[in-house]
Amino acid sequence: MNILVWDTSSTDGVVALGVSQGKTFQCLESMTLSVLASRAEGLLWAIDTLLTRRGMTLQELDLLGVGLGPGSFTGIRIGVTTAKIFARFGGMPLVGVSSLEVLLRPACLPHQVARVAVPACRGEFFVGSWDGEYYDECLSTSQDGATAFKMSGDVLGQVCYEQFMHGKKEAIRPRYLRASHAEIKRGIVC
């Protein structure tokens, strides 16, 4: 099974191309995105580059996966919209996963507590927590006890593949933990 995954929710986005090997995702190649410039252009360039290097086309993909955030509103919208368009017109399944859960996955061991925090602007952080058994995420003004993890194409691919294999169908919608600057400014949301 050929699998393409990406996450554009933060300034360190990632795109990875891999294959399934039994119960695992084997990453063939990944690229880190510097999404500070043009997220849409960078994402499409990275997808095209990975497929071209492997001599593949979109029609040869069997599964797409996308990070749903939380994170940058613009980054998430571009990543999720691109994934939906590719899945729809390519006729392939699409899975979405929490970007914080992917960041935290390397530390998610039974009976071990872990936290990851990603800057959310306005002096706030998107925080993902693992208590040894359950995962949770929230918006916080503190990053106390959080460890810094970098987004990995290997881990993103594995989490997406597991979701697909376990039949977990999360709605492919951005995970916003707060209103956008524009919504607050217009008084649309408190």
For this entry, give a set of tags.
globular; Nucleotidyltransferase, domain 5; 190 residues; alpha/beta; three-stranded antiparallel β-sheet; single chain
Number of domains: 1
Which regions have little confidence, pLDDT < 50, spanning 5+ residues? none
Rg result: 16 Å
In CATH terms, what is the fold-level topology?
Nucleotidyltransferase, domain 5
Q: Give the integer mean of the pLDDT values.
A: 86
Beta-strand portion reads 25-35%
CATH class division: Alpha Beta
How many strands, which pairing sense, and closed or not: the largest β-sheet?
5 strands, mixed
Give a structural overview:
- With 190 residues, the chain is α/β, with parallel strands linked by helices.
- It has one domain (2-99, 150-186): ATPase, nucleotide binding domain (Nucleotidyltransferase, domain 5), CATH 3.30.420.40.
- It is built from five helices and eight strands, in the order βββαβαβαβββαα.
- The protein has helices spanning 39-53, 73-90, 99-104, 153-165, 181-186, and strands spanning 2-7, 12-21, 24-34, 63-67, 94-97, 114-119, 125-130, 135-140.
- The strands form two sheets. Strands 3-2-1-4-5 form a five-stranded mixed β-sheet. It has a three-stranded antiparallel β-sheet with strand order 6-7-8.
- Strand 7 and strand 8 form a beta hairpin.
- The chain is globular.
- The N and C termini lie far apart (45 Å).
- The mean pLDDT is 86.
How do the strands and helices of this protein lay out in sequence?
Blueprint: E1 2-7, E2 12-21, E3 24-34, H1 39-53, E4 63-67, H2 73-90, E5 94-97, H3 99-104, E6 114-119, E7 125-130, E8 135-140, H4 153-165, H5 181-186
Parallel strand pairs: 1-4, 4-5
Antiparallel strand pairs: 1-2, 2-3, 6-7, 7-8
